[in-house]
Amino acid sequence: LGRPADQIAAFDILRDHVGLAKPGETAPPATVKLSAPLLSDVLWLCNVAKKPRLCVHFAHQVMAHDPGLLDRGHMDHVLAAYGALAALGSLSEAAHALRTLEWMLEQEQAVAAGHRIRPGHSTYTLVLVACWRAKDWDSALRTFELMTGFAASDFADSAASASASGSASAPQPAARSHGRNLEPDAAAASCLVRTALAAGDPAALRLFGVRFTAPVK
């Protein structure tokens, strides 16, 4: 929270003592072991200093060499960085955010303490923010499916018409373990609608009109 010169000093300390170097730099052997609380401060520093690409860069180093260190809080910092990059006009950040979300879900199943990295409401919402800012409707739709367990196609025009006529049953979410199916809150729903608006797809707007004005019982 200091001056730019203080933030530069902080990054020098990370390079010289923690082994986290910026792209193009070489770090000497670390003298301080990277812990979960320290990593959280590192990623937060990157975003506060308005260096989201550096946040992603450091996170990728840890994902490659010590993925068990990462938890949901760390990954939320990374997803916030993708959203910041999308706000600057980068259209690929939503796809990167979605791949990060999928990686988290894979890690949840692969490690003993998988619950520590399980995505929560904040995680999904941060991905959806990146989708909205990048105008990436396809990534938003896939995020909705991963969040809720519903198939987005069940709310498309054809499915909604079949349900209204009684020729099809109401959509149901996939059966998953407790806490995996999350209902979008106001923030997540807002991002979904904003993404549909930004994409300029009337069918997309109707899809979420069906979903949120007539919730499945």
Number of helices: 10
Portion of residues within helices:
55-70%
Summarize the main sheet: none
User: What's the β-strand tally?
Assistant: 0
- State the low-pLDDT regions, or none: none
Radius of gyration: 20 Å
Strand content: under 5%
| Element-level helix/strand string | HHHHHHHHHH
Shape: globular
Structural class: mainly alpha
- The whole-number mean of residue pLDDT values reads 88
Report the span from N to C terminus.
47 Å
Q: Can you describe this structure?
A:
The chain is globular, with a radius of gyration of 20 Å. The chain has helices spanning 4-18, 36-48, 52-65, 72-87, 93-110, 121-134, 137-148, 157-165, 186-199, 202-213. By secondary structure, the protein is an all-alpha fold. The chain is built from 10 helices and no strands. α7 (137-148) packs antiparallel against α9.
Write the layout of secondary structure elements.
Blueprint: H1 4-18, H2 36-48, H3 52-65, H4 72-87, H5 93-110, H6 121-134, H7 137-148, H8 157-165, H9 186-199, H10 202-213
Helix pairs in contact: 2-3, 2-4, 3-4, 4-5, 4-6, 5-6, 5-7, 6-7, 6-9, 7-9, 9-10
In a few lines, what is going on in this structure?
The protein is an all-alpha fold. It has helices spanning 4-18, 36-48, 52-65, 72-87, 93-110, 121-134, 137-148, 157-165, 186-199, 202-213. The chain starts with a helix and ends with a helix.
